[in-house]
Structure formats: C-alpha cells, structure tokens
Write a structure and sequence with these properties.
The structure is a homodimer of 229-residue chains. Chain A contains 10 helices and 2 strands. The radius of gyration of chain A is 20 Å and the shape is globular. With 229 residues, chain A is mainly alpha-helical.
C-alpha cells in the first residue's frame, strides 16, 4: 500500500504526518508538533499559486512561495532605506507569511478592481482556516503579522508593502513588461499602485519612479489611458 | 527599443536597473542601492534551480527559491524544538540565504557522493561572485551566515540544517517516495543523511525516524542495500 497525498477535494481533512499507528512509537504523541507539521504541509501549496508577474528571465510566471522568499531576502538587504525606524526582523517575518492566505483565496492581480472587491472576505476566510492549523499561540502570532501587513498602519508594514511592490515592478521591467502588455495595464495605473512605496522610503520611491519612467521610455509600458469599461 | 534581460552567457555583466541615462534624475546616484538591486536581480535565478524533491502534491520538482521560503517559515514555527538555546532570527536569516550559491554551483543531490567531492569548491566560487555583488558590509554579513550554516558548529546552524533535512523528507513521504525510487535511494542512506537532525533536536529526530519507518513500512522506501559501485 502506497501512501498518497490528500486529494484536492479533501484539502481540509488533516493529514497526520506522524500517525500513532506508525511502527515507530513516538512515546508521548506531541500534538503541538503534529499541528505545526500539518500547517507546513498545507502551505506547501503556496508554491502552486501563480502570480501575474514573470521570473526576471521571462521563462514562466512566479509563484507565491518563491515570491515570499525573494521579498524576504530583499528585506534583509533593503531595510536600511526605511525613512522611519523599523524592526527589520518583523518586516522579514511579515513578508514570509504575507501571501499564505492565497493558498485558499488565490492571487488577486493588483490591477483587477473587480476581484479586489471580495478579496478581503476571501482572504479572511483563508486566514481563519490556515493559521488555525497551528497551535493557538502561533496561530495568533502569524495571523497578527498578516493583519498588520494588510492594515499598513505601522512602519514595518509600510516597508514590507513597499518591498512587495518594488520586486514585482523590477521583475516586470527585467522581463520586458510582458505582464503589463498581457493585461493592458498602462503607466497611470502602475504609478498609482506604486505610489505608496514613498510612504516607507523616499529612496525606494525614486527607484520605482525611475523604473516606470524607463519602462515607458523603452516602450514596455503604454502611456495610453485604460479602455473605458 | 525593448529592454531584455541579460543573456545567459552574459551573467556576470552587471545589469543596471537604474541607469543614469534614465529620463528621471536620481539626483545622487546611489551606488549602494544599485548594488543591492543587482544582487536581488541575480539571485532571482534561484527560482530556476531544481532540487531532486517534489512538491508535496507530487506535481513537479521543487526549486531553491520556494524551498528557502518553506524552511524559513518552518524555522518560525519549529525553533522552539531546539534542544539548545538558539537565536531564532539568525536561524531564519541563515535559511533564507543557505542555497543562494546554487545559482552558480547548481543543486548537489544529498545522496550523490561523486558530486559531493567538488561541491565545496564550486560553492565557494559561487559565494565569491554572488555575495560580492552586495555592498561590502552586507556581502560579509550574508557570506558569514552561509559559512556558519555550512560549518554546522553553532546551535543555530545545527537547527537550520535539521529543518533543511526535515522538510524534504516530509515532502518525499507526502509525494509517495518518488525521489528515492527515481534515484535508487534506500533506507540506510536516508537514515544516515538524517541522523544529524538529532544534533539539534531530539523531538525533530523522533519525527524523522518515524517518517523513515513509515516510508519503509508502506513500501515507499526500499530496505535493500545500495548496489555495489
């Protein structure tokens, strides 16, 4: 008999990686550790949630798992550019969990105004299910990080959001603007979405503005107004 | 004229994401920030370095970028199981950079004894090139994290290594043992490679042992001795 991963329709059923029926006795079965492992198994699916952006080499779309890694490393090297004092570790931890809810809620394209409407609801339900797989203290802790990121009311959340905007923009420019062209996104929209970078860092906002100017200048990003709905 | 990412044969040429010829003036060109961005662009390629393990749903092989994210989140929830006192932030930072050298050096399968021979040399050259893209203080800082991880001499490095073993093992079991079957890996090898988990945490070692027992018990992992060379 070969063990298989849970089927899609059975996503909410807990899969116990360390069953008590195992031939090895675990002594005291550690329910806390089992919950932690179940959470780690469940969020593996973030690697299958595709974003609209491409890898910088343009070969394929990026997934949420690798995106969260890239922005976390970016936080390690860019936190010094924050205009306010930030706790860099908090920025790091926030970025490592900021898109986990998309395992259930899916990625919402930043320029999709229709999908944006029910995004808060979808993501809240996802947070309820996913973070609650963890022991309650950790569930509260990770959920608080995610809520703080979403609310953008602290210096850490603003910097995390700025980095979360900067990297996809950089990737879009590196990949020749393909995401914008595929979705008919024009410069005015890109400027609006990326304006909040300056709330965290004037120097990162300068980079963002220069990247957008360059994308327009080289023809990657259209100047035209968006089509009327 | 459309900007394109640097070709493969031109990987060492610095690509300046914020050229001074841009229509936007950056005022003082910030060489430090330009170096940081260049590093972040270069390590994007970690998302294209494939490991031998599959995603937990078995659909495809995992890449280094998403792997580093997953182990970093694992560090956030599992650090409490360390038998020694650890600085959890250091474990996190170590795991976020531990496979960056593979952008140049490639992934070395943990059961490949031939490839293991020149692995240190390949990875050291990769570290020289990649970390040196950063401003020198950050280059030293990230390289020190990687060296510490590789040396396994601190409690943080041992815990990071244990988590870096546990997650692929869990993924292999979830995906039905495909990696082991594809490469003719048997239980004795898996036990040897995963024995070091106990140097960091007795409870994580128990999980590892139970997972291996279960893999053998369910026929995912062969008991036979490896073929003679």
């Amino acid at each position: 008999v070969r063990s298989t991963p849970p089927a899609d329709e059975d996503r909410t059923a807990p899969y116990d990686p360390v069953p008590q029926s195992s031939s090895a006795s675990l002594g005291e079965p550690d329910e806390r550790l089992a919950r932690q492992l179940r959470f780690l198994i469940e969020i593996d699916a973030a690697k299958t949630v595709l974003r609209r952006s491409y890898l910088m080499d343009g070969t394929r779309r990026e997934n949420d798992g690798e995106h969260m890694w890239h922005v976390a490393v970016a936080a390690m090297v860019l936190s010094e550019h924050a205009d306010e004092t930030v706790d860099p570790t908090k920025v790091l931890r926030m970025l490592l969990v900021h898109d986990i809810v998309e395992v259930d809620a899916g990625d919402t394209f930043v320029y999709d105004e229709v999908a944006a409407r029910d995004k808060p609801d979808r993501e809240r339900r996802a947070a309820d299910r996913l973070f609650n797989l963890l022991p309650s203290d950790q569930s509260l802790e990770l959920r608080a990080l995610w809520e703080e990121f979403e609310a953008r009311r602290t210096a850490e959340a603003r910097l995390a959001a700025a980095i979360d905007r900067l990297l996809p923009l950089l990737a879009n420019v590196m990949a020749g603007g393909r995401t914008w062209q595929e979705h008919g996104v024009v410069d005015e929209q890109v400027r609006r979405v990326n304006r909040r970078v300056g709330e965290a860092s004037a120097s990162l906002q300068q980079v963002v503005d220069a990247l957008i100017d360059r994308a327009v200048h080289t023809g990657m990003l259209d100047r035209a107004s968006p089509a009327e709905p």
